[in-house]
DNA sequence: CACGCATACTCGTATAGACGAGTGGGCAAG
DNA sequence: CTTGCCCACTCGTCTATACGAGTATGCGTG
């Protein structure tokens, strides 16, 4: 037996409206969340309570929840309830994050930054191997057939937030420390410069889309969370592309920030 | 009476799997799409056909479709069927799009670019008015109370792709052509420079998220399409923020591209 | 007091059926 | 031949029911 909902929390249905019932319910819940009647992390009324409150069937209520889930507003926990999804702290990526001065410290940018923010950083799923270049990577690197691929996943306080793969032409990377699991202080960009590939500029392409099922697993994404897909190409002083880095980020964990000259 | 599906197109269910039936069906459809068995714009088997093929109830099939819809892979058309969602052509935004040289032409960047790409550009929903600054805008502009807001929506070949609002401090914009519906050749940045606010650099913040219901309406977004939220602040030579532009873009219509120096 | 189990409550999955509404093709009437 | 209607097929919405599985709480046993 569910106790009645606090009156006034949620309104009634409008039977004359041509808006579907489950949409009306979703609208009311969304508005209640927006107005702060339910706070971040707080539990929404259970399906059974809403069934009783609105006098509809359970599937209708679930339908409403699935709308809000698709919007990334709420998430359901089996056995517990449906909760307002808390917005995780976001990591800000500044456009100068690859500046040479940051590289001269020794530790990786990710670690340094996370430590500074007081969170616990972690890097795992390291895989370093030679493989056939995809069509796209090959084009970006200038028609190479095989590449060195470096895959890794980044976590903050135990939560996976980013999955990245770097691709480098074999004639540059093979036999160097870049082909080792640990590329040493300053990361592969420091190594590239030591090898005489003076970095000139980067190009970053940004897309946003819904994640594939694989990405949902790897990044443990809640439903309704898109990913930011970033492809960075590094060019040396001769204008040659020396690295392509393909990164998929949990969109709710990141803000990208760029400085552009107004020349 | 539905004719049987072509055999081999879709597999069978695995009753021993602990993967839910509707997920298995979604998996098979997704794989078939990925492999090109169903092409862009092509119609998937109808709900009734899948009900018969898999021997499940209709709600189970609909559940599968709703997964794929959430992933942005398919879209349903009432009375017609469920179709593989075609990927619209993407508009590429280069990081030099606000370079002074582009401004000196006269026409707006959006129009020029679209014309060049052979598509039909359009700008509507113009609204120009003074209003109270939101907390966020006020902070970015340096504690201003009221601002001039310029709202507009951009369309490509009839499809809305972007919705933007520019905010300017009143002491800069009031009484100038910036406060007019048509800001004149080169846009408001050209006017700002004429008014002595020599632009020095821009800062852009990028987020990705699922759209609000309002944004779905304004941009006529299909389900499963995120938005890119870009907030650009323009700074003049004195380091003062002279404009904040808040832009929401249909993520399936854009690729953002940035050039970063490796200094 | 500590442990374990029963129980009630939560959401997850699935079935079966009903009616409504949008679309398009075919057929019959003009 | 053209027009207009009917019908079959499509997805949209909603009900009612059933069982399974994860979670938390409290109570009884040791």
Topology:
The structure is a homodimer of 263-residue chains.
Chain A: H1 21-34, H2 47-54, H3 58-70, E1 74-77, E2 81-84, E3 91-94, H4 100-103, H5 109-116, E4 121-132, H6 135-141, E5 146-156, E6 159-169, H7 170-173, H8 187-194, E7 199-209, H9 213-218, E8 227-236, E9 241-250, E10 254-261
Parallel strand pairs in A: 3-10
Antiparallel strand pairs in A: 1-2, 4-5, 5-6, 6-9, 7-8, 8-9
Helix pairs in contact in A: 1-3, 2-3
Chain A binds a DNA duplex (30 and 30 nucleotides) through helix 3.
Description:
Two copies of one chain form a homodimer. Chain A is 27% helix and 32% strand. With 263 residues, the first copy, chain A, is α+β, with helices and mostly antiparallel strands. In chain A, the strands form three sheets. Chain A has a six-stranded antiparallel β-sheet with strand order 4-5-6-9-8-7. In chain A, a hairpin with a 4-residue loop joins strand 8 (227-236) and strand 9 (241-250). In chain A, helix 2 (47-54) crosses helix 3 (58-70). The model of chain A has no long low-confidence stretch (mean pLDDT 91). Chains A and B meet through helix 3, strand 7, strand 8 and strand 10 of A and helix 3, strand 7, strand 8 and strand 10 of B. Strand 10 of chain A pairs antiparallel with strand 7 (199-209) of chain B, so a sheet runs across the interface. The structure holds a DNA duplex (30 and 30 nucleotides). Chains A, B: It holds the Pfam family GntR.
């Amino acid at each position: 037996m569910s106790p009645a909902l606090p009156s006034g929390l949620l309104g009634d249905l409008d039977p004359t409206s041509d808006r579907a019932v489950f949409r009306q319910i979703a609208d009311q819940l969304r508005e209640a969340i927006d107005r702060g009647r339910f706070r971040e992390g707080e539990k929404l009324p259970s399906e059974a309570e809403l069934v009783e409150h609105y006098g509809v069937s359970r599937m209708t209520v679930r339908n409403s929840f699935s709308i809000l889930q698709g919007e990334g507003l709420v998430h359901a926990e089996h056995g517990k309830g449906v909760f307002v999804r808390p917005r995780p702290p976001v990591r800000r990526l500044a456009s100068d994050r690859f500046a040479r001065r940051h590289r001269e410290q020794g530790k990786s940018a990710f670690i340094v930054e996370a430590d500074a923010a007081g969170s616990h950083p972690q890097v795992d799923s390291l895989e370093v191997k030679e493989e056939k270049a995809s069509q796209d990577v090959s084009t970006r690197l200038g028609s190479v057939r095989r590449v060195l691929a470096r895959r890794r996943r980044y976590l903050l306080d135990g939560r996976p937030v980013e999955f990245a793969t770097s691709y480098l032409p074999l004639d540059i990377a093979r036999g160097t420390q870049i082909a080792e699991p640990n590329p040493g202080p300053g990361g592969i960009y420091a190594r590239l410069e030591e090898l005489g590939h003076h970095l000139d500029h980067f190009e970053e392409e940004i897309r946003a889309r819904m994640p594939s099922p694989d990405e949902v697993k790897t990044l443990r994404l809640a439903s309704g969370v898109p990913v930011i897909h970033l492809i960075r190409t590094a060019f040396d002083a001769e204008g040659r592309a020396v690295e392509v880095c393909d990164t998929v980020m949990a969109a709710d964990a990141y803000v990208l920030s760029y400085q552009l000259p107004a020349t």
